[in-house]
Structure formats: C-alpha cells, structure tokens
Design goal:
The chain is α+β, with helices and mostly antiparallel strands. The chain has a domain of 69 residues: Roll (Transcriptional Co-activator pc4, Chain A), CATH 2.30.31. A 4-stranded antiparallel β-sheet has the order 1-2-3-4, covered by helices on one side.
C-alpha cells in the first residue's frame, strides 16, 4: 500500500468533502477536511481513477492546518492577479520554443 493511501486509512474521522473538479479524464482534484492525530486539516489532493471505478488518493497534494488556509488563499489570489494582468513570465526555454514556432515569416 502506498504512503498516501496508508495515511488516508489512518484518519481519526471520515473526511468531509468540500469540493472537487476534474483535472483530466482519469484524475480529480479533491478538497476535503480531515482529522489526523486530533488536528483538523484541509487536504487538497489529486485522486486517480483505479480500475475504472474507484478514485484513490495520490501523493500529489498539500495538507494544511486550518489556520494556514488564509495564507494559501492570499497566495492563490496573488497568482490569479498576475495571470489576469499578464505579469507571469514563461520559463526561458518555453519562451524560446514559443518564439520559434510563432516567429514572423517574411
């Protein structure tokens, strides 16, 4: 059994699902409250479809104490503002590839 699955099986209570959305055809991003070692945590994790019928948690995710949620929200809002304003920069290699593909032909 993988570590993420083993840890999810050792929860103190049943997780309470907040929301989920599709990442792709076989994965979802699930946000849920969990209690682990008597601490309430917010778990944001990728779940993958196993055997075509059940979703299981992966190691891809983040688990935060509930008092850290506002800090995460601020970081996401800041990133969203940069995306809207066009301030985010492409990595250098990605920019080189984009420029090569889209260079003006003359």
């Amino acid at each position: 059994m993988k570590k993420a699955t083993a840890k999810m099986n050792n929860l103190d209570t049943t997780p309470r699902l907040v929301d989920q959305f599709n990442k792709n055809a076989s994965e979802v991003i699930r946000t849920q409250f969990i209690t682990y070692n008597n601490r309430q945590l917010l778990d944001i994790r990728t779940w993958v479809l196993k055997n075509g019928k059940d979703f299981v948690p992966t190691r891809k995710g983040i688990c935060l104490r509930v008092d850290q949620v506002d800090s995460l929200k601020q970081a996401i809002e800041k990133a969203a503002e940069e995306i809207k304003s066009g301030k985010q920069e492409r990595p250098k290699r990605a920019k080189q590839i984009y420029d090569k593909v889209h260079r003006k032909r003359g």
